[in-house]
Write a structure and sequence with these properties.
With about 325 residues, the protein is of the alpha/beta class. It contains 13 helices and eleven strands. A five-stranded parallel beta sheet has the order 2-5-8-1-9. Strands 3-4 form a two-stranded antiparallel sheet. It has a two-stranded antiparallel sheet with strand order 6-7.
């Protein structure tokens, strides 16, 4: 299939994206970047971690998206006393039947919101790993596949660290994107205020079905990506691992660990999703750059020296993007 045929298929799906944006706007004002990142997760089956201070509509946005897509949704409030069984389910003995019965937990939903994910202990985080990576859950000695589409969307508060547990690198790496949510613009916040005071927010109606999601995902997989773009992705990831080889010797003392191979995969799939949302049948270097910060910021692990110099992963990614040659 050539690029023109792919573009025609993308155009066929664009009306669905417009409908989704319009419905989403009933509940959320602004925050277009957050919606696009959530859509990238949906289009590529990638888990998304949202980081931002309280009150930025992270939970509302995920709930609204689930309603608009007509999928099942579960919100799990992560707390220090949460147990793995509270997440995945457990075996319950039924005396009348003299046998055990499986009670499935809230993880058995299409969209799972792990609210304040860093407040739960490591044993709960481990229970979530299998679901995020393998799309399955083990209860007792039985394994249950999770219904597709399945997506974990998590939130965490970056400013309040009391009573929180740092997420293991193995779990953080399973999030395709780590998105930083910022405050709305003054004109957007005014609209939010008006909607709250006048109670003009309208209920979200389902505008797409799971079958529509699968159809869009199939088109995203068709997006053409030139070998030069693939080489560019690999060069960016390699620069996080061996900065000196990429003429970035000054970054070498600042990076403890570079991005994993998942970063290469997610940069590629993410760039395809960006091209789809922009109505194109092919990916460009700019599409890669558009998702680079969200894909790499939680995968570039800084040294103590970098932290002492108040260097951030975003600053390092910016330097890499400015230095690595663009095809």
């Amino acid at each position: 299939m050539d690029v023109h045929q792919i573009k025609d298929k993308v155009a066929e799906q664009s009306e669905r994206v417009h409908r989704l944006h319009a419905e989403f706007g009933k509940a959320i004002v602004g925050q277009e970047a957050m919606l696009d990142r959530l859509l990238i997760g949906v289009l590529t089956n990638g888990n998304v971690l949202l980081e931002g201070v309280p009150g930025l509509a992270k939970t509302t946005a995920i709930n609204a998206l689930a309603q608009a897509l007509s999928v099942s949704f579960q919100r799990i409030q992560f707390t220090p006393d949460l147990l793995p069984a509270d997440l995945v389910g457990t075996m319950i003995y039924v005396p009348s039947e003299a046998s055990f019965r499986t009670r499935k937990g809230p993880i058995f939903a299409n969209f799972v919101l792990a609210d304040e994910i860093n407040r739960a202990p490591s044993k709960v985080q481990s229970a979530l790993l299998e679901a995020m990576q393998e799309r399955q859950v083990t209860i007792g000695d039985e394994t249950f596949p999770l219904e597709s589409p399945f997506l974990v969307m998590a939130t965490q508060n970056p400013i309040e660290q009391e009573g929180t547990y740092p997420l293991p690198e193995a779990q953080v790496d399973r999030f395709m994107l780590k998105v930083k949510i910022t405050y709305p613009q003054p004109n957007e916040e005014r609209k939010v205020l008006d909607m709250a005071l006048d109670e003009t927010a309208r209920p979200i109606q389902p505008v797409l079905t799971p079958e529509d999601i699968f159809s869009m995902q199939d088109v995203v997989k068709m997006i053409y990506m030139d070998d030069n773009i693939k080489d560019y992705i690999l060069a960016l990831v390699q620069a996080t691992r061996d900065p000196a080889a990429s003429k970035l010797s000054d970054l070498a003392p600042l990076i403890d660990f570079g991005a994993s191979p998942r970063a290469s995969i997610f940069l590629g799939t993410g760039a395809r999703a960006v091209a789809f949302l922009n109505g194109r049948g092919y990916a460009t270097p700019q599409d890669v750059k558009d998702v680079a910060y969200d894909v790499l910021r939680h995968r570039v692990i800084l040294t103590y020296e970098a932290e002492a110099e108040q260097m951030t992963s975003e600053a390092i990614i910016k330097e890499i993007l400015n230095t690595v040659p663009v095809p």
